[in-house]
């Protein structure tokens, strides 16, 4: 009868339960700690703020349909720039674009003021920044 060498099974166990989790942990940590790259810098009340696109809020409130536009049923969208403090709280909003009417921008702005974003890090420190948010409006049938 031929005895099997336990070394391959031990090696597989070590790789599966020790090395693989360590590797995955380091990869996930690197992905989490990656700092976003600003798309631009803008002057906001005398302060140069980095601007970011594509940052998802941690908490968000959906916008309500603009008052007075219920009869049109025409879809719309708004782009809102949110000024976010180092803790992720929205401290100011600016409507960048609102179509087809200004009501969509006002409704989007009201919603975004209640949002909360993750802390944005630059050089390892949380910073005040501007985050662009695109909100779309469509009525369901």
- Give the % helix: 25-40%
* Low-confidence residue ranges: 22-31
Number of strands: 7
SS class: alpha+beta
Domain count: 2
Q: What Rg, in angstroms, do the CA atoms define?
A: 24 Å
- Mind summarizing the main beta sheet? 5 strands, mixed
CATH C-level category of the largest domain: Alpha Beta
Question: Which key phrases capture this entry?
Answer:
2 domains, 141 residues, alpha+beta, TolA/TonB C-terminal domain, 27% helix
Give a structural overview.
- With 141 residues, this protein is of the alpha+beta class.
- The protein has helices at residues 7-33, 102-112, and strands spanning 40-44, 47-53, 76-84, 90-99, 121-122, 125-126, 129-137.
- The strands form 2 sheets. The protein has a 5-stranded mixed sheet with strand order 1-2-7-3-4. A two-stranded antiparallel ribbon has the order 5-6.
- Strand 3 (76-84) and strand 4 (90-99) form a beta hairpin.
Secondary structure layout:
Layout: H1 7-33, E1 40-44, E2 47-53, E3 76-84, E4 90-99, H2 102-112, E5 121-122, E6 125-126, E7 129-137
Parallel strand pairs: 2-7
Antiparallel strand pairs: 1-2, 3-4, 3-7, 5-6
What's the short version?
This protein is α+β, with helices and mostly antiparallel strands and 141 residues long.
């Amino acid at each position: 009868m031929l005895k099997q060498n336990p070394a391959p099974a031990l090696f597989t166990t070590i790789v599966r339960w020790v090395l693989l989790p360590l590797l995955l942990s380091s990869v996930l940590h690197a992905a989490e700690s990656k700092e976003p790259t600003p798309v631009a810098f803008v002057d906001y009340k005398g302060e140069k703020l980095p601007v970011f696109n594509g940052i998802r809020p941690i908490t968000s409130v959906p916008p309500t349909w603009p008052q007075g536009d219920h009869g049109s049923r025409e879809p719309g969208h708004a782009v809102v720039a949110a000024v976010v403090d180092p803790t992720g709280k929205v401290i100011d909003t600016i409507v960048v674009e609102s179509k087809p009417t200004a009501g969509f921008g006002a409704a989007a702005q009201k919603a975004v003021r209640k949002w909360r974003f993750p802390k944005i890090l630059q050089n390892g420190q949380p910073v005040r920044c501007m985050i662009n948010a695109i909100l779309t409006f469509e009525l369901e049938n």
